[in-house]
Every structure is written in C-alpha cells, then in structure tokens.
What we know:
37% of the residues lie in helices and 17% in strands. By secondary structure, the chain is an alpha/beta fold.
Amino acid sequence: EVRAGQTLGILGSTGAGKSTLLRCVARLLNPPPGTLFVDGVDIRSLDLDVWRERIAYVPQRAFLFTETVRDNILLGREEPEVLEQVLDLAALRIDVDALPEGLDTEVGEAGLTLSGGQRQRVALARGLARSPTLLVLDDVLSAVDHTTERHLLDALRRQSQRPTTIIVANRVSAIQHADTIAVLDQGKLVALGTHEELSEQPGLYRDTVLRQHEAEAS
C-alpha cells in the first residue's frame, strides 16, 4: 500500500519482475483482475485515457525525438514556467546551459547527441512537466553520478505538491529515502520495510547494501 504523496522504492535482481510491475501500473500490461488497485478501484476498471493523464511513466531507455531539448520536454506545449521548474527538478540546468544552443539544441536521432544520463533526465523532465499525481521511474538514475543523483532526489522531495512516486533502482542510494521499500525476487515480494529495517535483516537488500558500500570504498 502506497499512500498519496509517499515514495515506494523497489529493488531486485535482474528478472525479478520490477519493470513488469511498473508496466502494469502504467497499464502497458494488464495485471490479473483483483490484484492492483487505485483508491480501492481495480486498475483494470479505470478509463485508460484518464488514468494515463494522471501518471508519468519514465522508463530506463526513454525515446527522445529528433527535436530540440525544449520540444522533447514540453512536446509542443507552450509552458515556459513549467519548463523552468522541471529543469531544476531534473538537475538539467547546468547541462542545458553547456549545450551549443541551450534548450534549442537538437538532440539528434533518438537523443544520441546527449549522454546516457542527460537522456534519462530529459525524459524525467518530460514526465514532471505533466504535473502527474503518480510518478513512475524505472531505474532512470542508473546513468547519473552520485552527486547528481542526490541533487535530483532532494529536489523531488522538496516539491510543494509532491506526487506519489514509485522508483525502481539497482543502487540503494536512489531508494533509501523511500517511505517503504519492496524487495522482489523471481516475481515475488520477499521483503518490505524501510531502509533501516531492511539493512538489519539478512537477505537480498542487506547483501546489496554491503556489496555497494564495499564497491564505493574500494
């Protein structure tokens, strides 16, 4: 259960079902009836167009159009005040200022003129520009460094009207702030709790924490 405005973090090894779960939330896949509910209503009963207006789903490899950075974020809308806000939220302002033509720089086919981290954050800015009530992030921080990750997560938490957020990540640092963390293994929920609780319990989460701490120290 995830209450309005809370953050759910999801961690699991490859093939655990993380992305499948998020695709069910976004209704890119239909979950079995009676398994996923929004405000007590089976998600399969919701009007699909109305539901998708409420959410922003940002996959790990989001597609960018061969357009400018501005158009990839706003998708043709004229909302300069929204654009300024999401540049800060997605930690993009410094990157945009460094581009040859700033926001009017064309990103090239599928965004190939940008780095992996920049592409992820342009896609995140696009999702945030929709002002969603539910923000679904599928490992979108995997290509950014820890400093940028920390800045981005702090900015998201400081929003005055913070959306309910679901974050899938392989790095513990990206989800340790979450109100609740779900650990998946082979399609099953194997642990649920806060970062502090799960770090003290034997299992996949604590093993991941220790492994990543050792890697950072070496």
